[in-house]
Write a structure and sequence with these properties.
This protein has helices spanning about 45-50, 75, 95-105, 110-120, 125-130, 135-150, 165-180, 195-200, 220-225, 275-285, and strands at about 5-15, 20-30, 35, 60-65, 65-70, 80-85, 155-160, 185-190, 205-210, 210-220, 225-230, 245-250, 255-260, 270-275. It has about 290 residues and is α/β, with parallel strands linked by helices. It folds into two domains: about 5-210, Rossmann fold (3-Layer(aba) Sandwich); about 220-285, Alpha-Beta Plaits, CATH 3.30.70. The strands form three sheets. It has a six-stranded mixed β-sheet, with helices on both faces. The chain has a four-stranded antiparallel β-sheet with strand order 2-1-4-5, covered by helices on one side. A hairpin with a 2-residue loop joins strand 9 and strand 10. Helix 4 (about 110-120) runs antiparallel to helix 6. It is elongated. The model has no long low-confidence stretch (mean pLDDT about 90). The structure holds adenosine-5'-triphosphate. Adenosine-5'-triphosphate binds near residues 20, 38, 42, 43 and 45. This is ABC-2 type transport system ATP-binding protein. InterPro entries: AAA+_ATPase, ABC_transporter-like_ATP-bd, ABC_transporter-like_CS, ABC_Transporter_VariousFunc, P-loop_NTPase. It comes from Massilia aurea. Keywords: ATP-binding, Cell membrane, Membrane, Nucleotide-binding, Transport. One of its GO terms (molecular function) is ATP binding.
């Protein structure tokens, strides 16, 4: 059996005394496209950096395509593409110089794709030939995406890749992601706070909370089964099947978030409501 592109077991990472990743287990299988969600500061960037070996972990193990991070072969490295949240481009180079530099490092470099993306994403002669530090934030982000896609990676890790793009740029990037990348069977991990983007590209979502993957599944299934159940404490005293969390509302009622059904749906005095992705995000990551 082909090993999964990402397998993390018991991964821990602390900054000072604060545990950011806490005994985290995570597996992303070949061809999966997973949206990674979590509140600001939940540790999404840290998780991506740790899984790519860009940041040392304090414990646990990471296998990429079955190889341990500390023994990753060049061939396996060449199967991975990454768009970081903050630009890590060589700012003193021009776009063309930087792409040439990376081309020399990858045995599989898709010149036609690079040319087509640069054309479509507005890189005219002037933009291709000026130092990257003089490109705008959105232009640098587009260039970073071109660099990550240029070697046709089999695993693509994207950390808020569209955060600096204008609506037209975002639409064009998402179209490329869906038609040019996901269609090819590429495994993708994609963090974003723009939930409409996520709904467009990611069939699966994973919620990072308290240093672990708190909930993961097919987006449609999670949304189909997610309900808010509200009623008096005497009817909702016991834990409900699929209960994720409960709280007290302002009027003293109990509000329970459940996953996987609609318990007590026909009970008088109990209200059962469906949840959208934004509601689910807020409830799961609260
Ligand atoms: N180098 C560092 N030193 C100390 N603390 C750090 C460092 N990098 C990140 N942190 C802290 O670790 C936590 C997780 O940060 P991280 O950037 O991984 O979160 P995130 O989920 O990606 O957030 P956002 O959604 O805002 O991008 C935050 O509290 C952050 O302040």
């Amino acid at each position: 059996m082909t090993p999964s592109p990402i397998q993390m077991r018991g991964v821990a990472k602390q900054f000072g005394s604060k545990a950011i990743l806490d005994n985290l287990d995570w597996e992303v299988r070949a061809g999966q496209v997973v949206g990674l969600l979590g509140r600001n500061g939940a540790g999404k960037s840290t998780l991506m950096e740790c899984l790519l070996g860009l940041r040392e972990t304090d414990g646990g193990s990471v296998l990429l395509f079955g190889e341990p991070l500390n023994a990753l072969t060049d061939a396996t490295r060449a199967r991975i593409g990454y768009v970081p949240q903050k630009s890590d481009l060589f700012e003193w180079m021009t776009a063309l110089q930087m792409l040439d530099y990376f081309k020399a490092m990858y045995p599989r470099w898709n010149d036609a794709k690079v040319a087509s993306l640069l054309d479509r994403w507005g890189f005219d002669g002037l933009m291709r030939n000026k130092p990257i530090r003089r490109l705008s934030g959105g232009e640098q982000q587009r260039l970073s995406i071109v660099r990550a896609l240029a070697h046709d990676p089999e695993l693509l890790v994207l950390d808020e890749p569209a955060s600096a793009l204008d609506p037209a740029g975002r639409r064009s990037f998402l179209a490329e992601l869906v038609d040019g990348v996901i269609e090819q069977g590429t495994t993708v991990v994609f963090s974003t706070h723009i939930l409409t983007d996520l709904e467009r590209v990611a069939p699966d979502v994973a919620f990072l909370k308290n240093g672990r993957i708190a909930l993961q599944g097919e987006l449609d299934t999670l949304l189909d089964g997610a309900r808010r159940v509200i009623g008096p404490a005497n009817l909702l005293g016991a834990a409900l099947p699929g209960e994720l969390r409960r709280s007290q509302t302002g009027d003293g009622s109990v509000c329970v978030i459940v996953q996987g059904g609609a318990p007590l749906a026909d009970t008088p005095g109990v209200r059962v409501e469906p949840l959208g992705l934004e509601d689910l995000f807020i409830e799961v990551t609260r």
